Amino acid sequence: MTSAAMDSIVAPLLSVAPTRALVDEMFTVRVENLPPCQHFTLHSLHLSEDNDYWEAFGHYTSNHKGTVVPQDYTKGGTYTGKEPMGLLWSLRPVPGSRKGLRLRKMNVCSPLLYTISVYSGHLVVGFRAQAPLASALAERWYMAPGVQRISIKEKAVRGTMFFPPGTEWPLPWTLGYYFGPGEMETTEMKSNYFETAFNIVKDHPRVISNKVGIVGLSLGATVAFYLATESKVVKPCCCVCINGHHFNPSGKHLFDLSYDSFKMHVRKLSAYWIDCFEYQESIIIIYLNFWQMGKINCPMLLVCGEDDQNVPAVEVADDIERMVRAAGKDRLLTRLNYPGAGHLIEVPYAPHFRVTAFMQAKEQKVMIVWGGQTKPHSDAQEDSWQKILDYLQLHLYSCPSLASKL
Amino acid sequence: QPHPAKSQHLKEPCYLSVQPCRALVDEKFKVLVQKAPPGAQLTVRSHHHSENKHEWEAFGHYICDSTGPRGTYEGVEPMGLLWSLRPVPGSKPGLRLRKMNVETPMEVTVSVYQGHLSEDFSEQRALAAVVVERWYMAPGVRRIPVTEHDTMLCSGPGRFPAVLDLWGGGGNLMEYRASLLASHGFAALVLDYLTNELTKTTGKMMENDYFEVAFKFLEQHPQIVGSRIAMWGLSFGTAMTLKMAVYSNVIKLRCAVCYSGSHIQPVDGSVKDIKEYMGKKRENIRVTENQEVIFRDLTLPVPKDPAFKVDMGRLQCPLQVVVGLDDQSWPAYESAMDMKVMMEEAGNSHLLTLLTYPHTGHLIEPPYSPYVRTSILRPFPVKVLWGGETAAHSRAQEDAWRKTLLFLREHLYDMRNSAVTSKSNL
């Protein structure tokens, strides 16, 4: 092609708005100046901290003005239908990647970078071998500007505190217990480990001591159940529990066990517990105890992925409801069910993983089925996050809600 | 009325959010205050520490009631927290807020206070605060110093149309408009043609071929579509833009944009000659009772002699002219009227788009840039009156920027009637 001919071809204009956003904010991608009524593919590419490439794409047809927007209907790709955020939530490892990958941001002080591109035609593979017609870079942040991140290493407790910016006023707080078996160091977890952590937060000068809530996913939810029912030391203001189980493996305090023996209990049961819950409840009752959920004294939000293959989230929630109702405390309990959602209900637009590799113990990698179908799981993440934020705001900021939009 | 610090009224913090918390400087944000009791008096304040260590602030007074807040801006204008930023009391006079390092964001702290405060904010405890980042550069835009006095800004990969960006008499290399253009899909080359190293050390001003060299650099650049280059001048930069657009045999512009400038200049003159001509009629300089200097009459009345104004009848590319009707520094309006007449007589007035803004001064900057009515213009050790009124000038900045981007998209991207939605950056 001569350079004169090249000159007369003007590139399409691809714009992402906003180019920088928090991970739970929406964006819009717009492509203009395309030839009308032709096939194009919108593509997003992300290089993870582990150096794996992740991608998502959708097939579109430009309209008569030569424009494509993701609110348009897509019939093919990693997502279908009218899905403006599909380029994020349907992200998956590129063909040829290692198996069982999971995308998690370890350094929250830097953004996730996505290259959003438009290609000619309806492509399914080979994106990196072709030059896109246009590209833009989008940043997605876990931290807003001004948020301070402080590592905590106090009284054997290890964690991170995040402070909202600006004010000197004490603030309400959320304590997040977010981990699963195998992800913690093999240290002995004394019964007071989580109580100590809670008190470190509660006693901090910038924290309103009677406004400390807990958010837990998976085993973190179990910790929340324990603290809300058994702890004599800790009184959470409210709890958000996502896909946790409420059983106490030995009937003793959960964390009087050494971590290794706890793991052993979990592994012994995990092969059987779904069956046990569904078909052999009587056996469970013989061999297991549960946290007495009727003892809760704070509001609790249960989030259940109905297709959770790791924890029988629905059965657990049913049982918790039964116990709480029997104690006359159902006004404290709120429940959100998400059909088609799996175990790992994360923040909005995070990619969905049905199966990933997991270090069960040192040198022992297994493939764990978390469950969920991508589209309903992603919808669950979007819906539950907003409801969780509203729930925390309701219980931790106690002034009557009156919004003032300036 | 109890002193706010001792009041028991609002013991608990309220909930403040600004969305988005990171944005380009030409994008809007929304401010939301929640959990404040009805009837509460609130002050929302923005605060910024500039690169040269000055403090700027703006604030608005609100009352929370069941029908919503009543603010001291006309209606409800969250962007006023930016465009009405002004130096805090006690600051050096004549300051102007301009971002020199475009690779870092401008950080603005937005806070909410109990009561209707107008001063002494540092002695009060904010009920809540957020930090907002305002960026001149989108992710992916690269900043490429070309020489020590020119910078190119470009997002990549791919080929782009380009804009040659010229500022005015204050000189220095101001990259912020060019980096915004690059964030919107236009490669941009900003030139320091008045105060670069060569001029500073030898005293020699740039010749006209300086601009032609810059143009050719763009034209031949592998990432630039050589047939789609525009020039955008503000103030003195307008003089150069019009000169090149009409007379240069080398520079072939797809379109041109002129803000707050004029076509009045010695047509055969170099940059040096033009500068001297601009300052000749010193007797026309006026000074207000506040010692503010008005330069606009220096080149008035519009000459009848064609040797002293660019022959607009010879212009061959579309031209957008933006004029503040209260411009106290350049006779932009008088010049625009004369240009219009020249083009009507020559039959090329269809190329001209003229945008005039009442109560708008000389420094028509990107949207939400803080408005200043006067500032010290280096190298002159005087306070220059730019003109305009805060709200009208700020609205003009917003409107002109949007229309200029549309103008550039139309001519550099062949995008006619492109849709402008609330979601786009325009």
UniProtKB/TrEMBL annotation, chain A:
GO terms for biological process: acyl-CoA metabolic process; fatty acid metabolic process. The active site is at 218 (charge relay system), 308 (charge relay system), 343 (charge relay system). Gene3D superfamilies: Acyl-CoA thioester hydrolase/BAAT N-terminal domain, alpha/beta hydrolase. Residues 24-154 form the Acyl-CoA thioester hydrolase/bile acid-CoA amino acid N-acetyltransferase domain. GO terms for molecular function: fatty acyl-CoA hydrolase activity. Residues 192-397 form the BAAT/Acyl-CoA thioester hydrolase C-terminal domain. Belongs to the C/M/P thioester hydrolase family. This is Acyl-CoA thioesterase 15. The lineage of its organism: Eukaryota, Metazoa, Chordata, Craniata, Vertebrata.
UniProtKB/TrEMBL annotation, chain B:
GO terms for molecular function: fatty acyl-CoA hydrolase activity. GO terms for biological process: acyl-CoA metabolic process; fatty acid metabolic process. InterPro entries: AB_hydrolase_fold, Acyl-CoA_thioEstase_long-chain, BAAT_C, Thio_Ohase/aa_AcTrfase, Thio_Ohase/BAAT_N. Belongs to the C/M/P thioester hydrolase family. Residues 26-148 form the Acyl-CoA thioester hydrolase/bile acid-CoA amino acid N-acetyltransferase domain. This is Acyl-CoA thioesterase 19. It comes from the Eukaryota. It holds the Pfam family Bile_Hydr_Trans. Residues 209-413 form the BAAT/Acyl-CoA thioester hydrolase C-terminal domain. The active site is at 235 (charge relay system), 327 (charge relay system), 362 (charge relay system). The lineage of its organism: Eukaryota, Metazoa, Chordata, Craniata, Vertebrata.
